[in-house]
């Protein structure tokens, strides 16, 4: 079985006591780490803005900005929120630990620090960070692949980003939990990634597909699910990929699911996908207005293709968004 070796890591040590910085730096340099030193919280954040940092050791009591404030700033920044943060304190106070948890700290160390404990905890957090980086890299490859497929058709430019935004807005209006909103945001980008297996002569055909071509095109949700399947973080994304072409009456594909047997996240993606297709130019027609699009979608509700409740809710979301844009 392959093992994951920890790559040389850059560790930030922020402490207003020079002796503490030197001691921690000496220990971790012997473990093969590159060390950056900061005398206070402001300097620590400046280093975060200019350097790639793999882990931060922050003294709780520092001038200008204390360890809690620096940790909170790190965790609130999308670019650094996954960097492990260890808070270091000489106080043994339950309230301090609670404050550390609230600001997003990954671990807590008490002074005086034992070398063995420091090395073990840092190594454990760096291993977790490496797995996280690999996961982000894999997700990035899938997103880039999906966007490259989108780019083949000039009529679908921006389609993935719009579906991410639309689906999250609708899910928020429905009160869906955050993990499902995140899944929809990701699925907006990769929902049609299975089209990588569809020949361009089929994918870009402007006229009706032959039965054979339609069979090829309708495989893409299953192919997409297979491509994204190895990523555990896509556990809630996979049903959206597989089922976003199902119809409420069971006439969709690939599994002919009916009604609530179709996951609500997939029904959301279907709803916003149809709306986006209608409100953007296609090779054979001009874009419909939002009002015209919803009229057509209501007809599809009557045919048993779309979830009527979701169409109604999404109509309210779009109206609210347009109203806010007009006022702004």
Into how many domains do the coordinates divide?
2
- Would you give the CATH topology of the largest domain? Hypothetical protein af1432
Average predicted confidence as pLDDT = 88
Largest sheet: 5 strands, parallel
Principal-axis shape equals elongated
- Measure the end-to-end span: 57 Å
Quickly give the CATH architecture of the largest domain. Orthogonal Bundle
Search tags:
single chain; 328 residues; alpha/beta; Rossmann fold; Hypothetical protein af1432; 2 domains; 5-stranded parallel β-sheet; 55% helix; elongated; disordered N terminus
Describe this structure in words.
The chain is α/β, with parallel strands linked by helices and 328 residues long. Helix 6 runs antiparallel to helix 7 (178-190), helix 6 (159-173) crosses helix 12 (264-278) and helix 13 packs antiparallel against helix 14 (308-327). It contains 14 helices and 5 strands. The N and C termini lie far apart (57 Å). A 5-stranded parallel sheet has the order 2-1-3-4-5, sandwiched between helices. It has helices at residues 18-30, 41-50, 67-76, 94-102, 115-151, 159-173, 178-190, 200-203, 211-217, 220-228, 238-243, 264-278, 290-302, 308-327; strands at residues 10-14, 34-38, 55-59, 85-89, 107-110. It is elongated and about 75 Å long. The chain folds into 2 domains: 10-132, 3-Layer(aba) Sandwich (Rossmann fold); 152-327, Hypothetical protein af1432.
